[in-house]
Design brief:
Blueprint (H helix, E strand, L loop, with lengths): L2 H27 L5 H6 L2 H20 L8 E7 L4 E7 L7 E7 L21 E9 L7 E4 L4 H6 L10 E3 L8 E2 L2 H16 L6 E5 L6 H13 L4 H17 L6 E2 L5 E2 L44 H14 L10 E10 L5 E8 L3 H12 L7 E3 L2 E3 L1 E10 L3
Parallel strand pairs: 1-8, 6-7
Antiparallel strand pairs: 1-2, 2-3, 4-5, 4-8, 5-6, 9-10, 11-12, 11-15, 13-14
Helix pairs in contact: 3-5
Amino acid sequence: MNKSKQILAPFFVIASLFFSASISHAQTSVASVNFLNYQRSFPRISDMMKRKEDTLMKQFQQKGLSWPAKYVYIRSFKYDSEMELWVKNKKEEKFKLFKTYKICALAGTLGPKRMSGDYQVPEGFYYITEFNPKSLYHLSLELNYPNASDRLLSDLSQPGGDIYIHGSCVTTGCIPITDEQIEELYIIAAHAKDLGQDFIPVHIFPVNFKNQKSVIYLNRYLQSFSENTSFEKNMKNAFFYFEKYRQIPLVLVNNKGDYVTEEVNLSEPQAEIKPKKKIVHAPQPIKDEDLPKVVEKLPLYPGGNDAFQDFITKLGKDEMKDLESGQTKTFVLVEYIIDKDGYPIYSRVIRGGNDEINEKIEAAFLKMPQWTPAVISGKKVPIKLKQTIMVGVDQ
C-alpha cells in the first residue's frame, strides 16, 4: 500500500462507520415520526398514492423486487439525459435497477455548477433533503446543493441553490422529468424514507461512462476545459465502483474541495475509447472554375423530383439514430457533383450534423443511381448542386 493509500484508509473507515450509524439511527427513530402518513395528509399525495401504489407494487413484482424498497439510489447522466432508479431491501444486498427515466429538458453544459445564474445542472454526490408536495412543478425533491465540495469550489457569495428533481419538463438548472415519472419516484423515495433511509443518495454524472459516444463527447469537452479533468476522473471512479459492486461508493471531500473516490480495477479491462477519425475527403474531382454556373436543364433524379424528395426524407429519418443525446432534429447542408454521364462523383457535408451523420449522408449521395445529366446547348455537362436535409422529424 503506498503512502497516499495509507493516509486515505482511516478516512474511508470513518466514513463507513458514520454511514452505518446514520442508517441505524434512522431505523430506530422512524417510529417517532411517521413520514408517509404526514405525506398522505396532503391531498395531492393522498390522491397520487391511491392511483399509483398498486401499479408500482405490480411493477416491482414483475421485476422480482420486494415492495416497498427500503433503500433507494438515484443516479443521473447529464449528457445522456437519463436518470436511473436503483432499489434494494437489505443493506448487504446489491442494488437492482428498477427503472430508467428520460430527463425531458436540459440546461447548461457538461461540468459542475459553480455560481448562481449559470444555468448549470450540478455534477457530484448529493442526497435528498426535502420532499415538496406543494411544488409549482407538480412535485419536487430538493438536493443538498451546495454540498461540502461546492461550498469550497463555487462562488463564495453566490454559489446558487434550489436544485430539485421535479416534474413539468422545464428547467434552469434542475433535473426535470414528467409528472407521471416524478410521482413514481416520489412515492418510492417516500416509502424508503419512511422505512428509515434518511439520506437518499443522488449522484449526478456528466455522462454514462458505459456509453462510448458519450465518453468521446466528454473527452472532447475536457480538451477545452482541462481544469475539470481531475473532477471528472473521480466521478468516473465512483461510477465504476457502483458498476462493479452494486453498492454506493464512499466519497470524501478533501480540504481543497476535491472529491476523493476509490479507483476500481475492473475484472474485465475496459477497451480504450478512441475518438473516431475524421473523414478524409478526396479532392474535388472537377474544379469549380470548370463547372458551369447555369444550365439549360438541371440533372434529373431517376423517377423525378418526387422520387428525389422521397430519397432525402428517408435518409433524414434513417439518420435519427445518430443524433446527439437530447437532439430531436438537425439540418445538414451537402454539396455534390453529378458528372456529364449522370453519375454522382463527389459529395461533402459543408454544414451541420456530426461525424457519424455526415459520413453516412456523404456515402448515401455517392451511392445514388445514375441521373439524367444537366444540359447546355444540347451538350451534357457536369454540375455541382447543394441540398439541405432535415435529420429527424418535425415535432
